[in-house]
Amino acid sequence: MLHRTLRHDFAESEGLVDNSRNLDPIVRREQRQKAAELCRTTWAKLQKAREQAMLKSGHTSNFGLNSGELLVLAAECCAKNGLFDDARDCAEEFFVDDCATSQGSQDQFLCRAKFVQAQVECNNAKPLQGADGVRRRRLAWGYVLDALKIATDELNRPRYDFLVYNAAVVLWDIIYPLLRDGAARYAVMPLQTLCDALEEVDDQKDLDLRVRYQRALGLCYDDAEEASLAGQCLTKAKELAQRRCTIAQEEVDASTTSLEEASQALEAAKNERLALDNEDEDEVVVEDAPAPAPAPGD
Hints:
mainly alpha, single chain, extended, 298 residues, 10 helices
């Protein structure tokens, strides 16, 4: 079906981008061009199919195209390929459809569409300096915080915990340029909100990320001349780092134990095999030589 083909092509385009990171620069550029072209082509197919469905029946339910998932996948794919104008258009269509068909559903696709809006505004902020840049980044992280409210709602926990990690990834790109003297203070609120959300989820797989965010938050409080709060953040970062080291050591110890157990099992198997071979040798029957044939005339 068409919607399955579109989903496959969007995923393939994103995969090409992900797999290009460690390639030779020339090969990487060619692969990313291929990914962007596939994304554009697939988005154009989705637009055409939606238009045809609308002309035929007055809505986009044909071909399963009324699902917000497809528009979000398209928006995410465009953003990953750096096609931010297309990403904005995809997100806008999602919000039009969402309000028209679902009465503003508060689900993961709404959160992910807001992440795309944040990425678009973050890209718009790149050429801006000073107060204009800060205002644009505030608009960007506002979308992230809106999504966080949904993800951390008690009705959505722990089902949407993965969205907190996604929010952290998007937010970092937004606030990173502000992590300098005189500007870091403006990022206190979004960083504190994100740190609180990560703390609530408390996923040990996110410890490295949480250390990074606590250190950044400490820098922001220091820039805001909140020395006490800055110290608390650095203390928390140290605790998380120690916890991460403990877990890493436990993993090393577990791997060492598993290796030793495997070596012991292999040695035991070898000994068993040797014992069986020895038993086979002991059980060899030595037959008497055949009696000589009687001489002629006997």
